[in-house]
Amino acid sequence: MSTWPQPDRTFEETLRVLRENSVSLDDASNWPSESLEVLGEAGVLGQVVPREYGGSEFSGPQLVEGYLQLSRACLPTTFVLTQRNAACQRFALSENESLKADLLPQLVGAGRFATVGISHLTTSRQHLSKPTVAVSIEGSRLVLDGMVPWVTGAGQADWVLTG
Q1: 118: which strand partners?
Q2: What does the pLDDT look like over 63-88, one tens digit per residue?
Q3: Domain residue spans in the chain?
Q4: Which fold has domain 11-162?
């Protein structure tokens, strides 16, 4: 029995559903929407969100314990979760209080999705003098120019955090 608090569903039931769904995720074109919904219902999606924004703000060891259990049930869903959580954690570290107040409560449940875009690879393109992504300001917009070679779930994302 897990020590993770789960408001709407036992963690074991969550793991069972993820195991069942994992078979369909062997095809890389399938998105784990049902599994993410189950994680939202179980309270897992709020674990990296600070309490003041509706999350449960788990500690590092608690997150690692959970990732281990989740990955045994469904590795693709757990990988997507880690990318989502990375974005949420970076939003939470922002000094922009209005951004945090707007985004973080929306990311506690499964209705919205954020992810990270990895643009600075350590194993390639480091010899180039120009960064892989440049940012400019055009009016009230930030414009990214370049290549972000890795964005898990870009087509599903409401927000992509990159830099």
Answers
A1: 150
A2: 999 999 999 999 999 999 999 999 99
A3: 11-162
A4: Butyryl-Coa Dehydrogenase, subunit A; domain 1 (1.10.540)
